[in-house]
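Quick one, probably user error.
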């Protein structure tokens, strides 16, 4: 028996035939759509390396069944840069050395984008650390990551003020 699911991934509608209804969103992205920027760390919801944004909320894609997100809007790390220009969070991670080996970085960045969209970041480093606590970094780049999130929040706030003015 085969199934199919339709997702909008980074703005493009994709219909995928599934031979197993248990395929996770993470495996669908990596193995069926070749979007390997989303990483598989623990594959059990503990590290955050697989974080993507689904219908505006960040989730661990290793815990999500692809079929249960039929019709969803999915944003992955590959969809962040626009017109050859990095997203403000990506630029801030580079500027603040928010990475070492880089394996956790796509998940960290997607989580940061999600928490800024949720309005949870604020200017308090402690709140940022808490809101990012589902994303583990074995290299211990946490200081740079926190600084990058705070910087990106400021940049995006300033950009939205300019848009309103
Ligand atoms: S791979 Fe999904 S939380 Fe670790
Ligand atoms: S940069 Fe290496 S695990 Fe985070």
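Nope, works fine. Designed sequence:
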């Amino acid at each position: 028996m085969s199934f199919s699911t339709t997702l909008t991934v980074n703005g493009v509608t994709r219909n995928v035939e599934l031979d197993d209804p248990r395929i996770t969103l993470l495996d669908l992205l990596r193995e069926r759509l070749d979007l390997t920027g989303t990483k598989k760390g623990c594959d059990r919801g503990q590290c955050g390396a697989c974080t993507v944004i689904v219908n505006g909320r960040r989730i661990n894609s290793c815990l999500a069944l692809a079929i249960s997100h039929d019709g969803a809007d999915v944003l992955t790390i590959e969809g962040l840069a626009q017109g050859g220009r990095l997203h403000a969070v990506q630029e801030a991670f580079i500027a603040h050395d928010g990475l070492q080996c880089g394996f956790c970085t796509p998940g960290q960045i997607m989580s940061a984008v999600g928490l800024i969209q949720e309005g949870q970041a604020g200017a308090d480093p402690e709140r940022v650390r808490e809101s990012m606590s589902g994303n583990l970094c074995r290299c211990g780049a946490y200081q740079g990551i926190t600084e990058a999130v705070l910087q990106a929040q400021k940049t995006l706030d300033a950009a939205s003020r300019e848009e309103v003015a």
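The mean pLDDT is 95.
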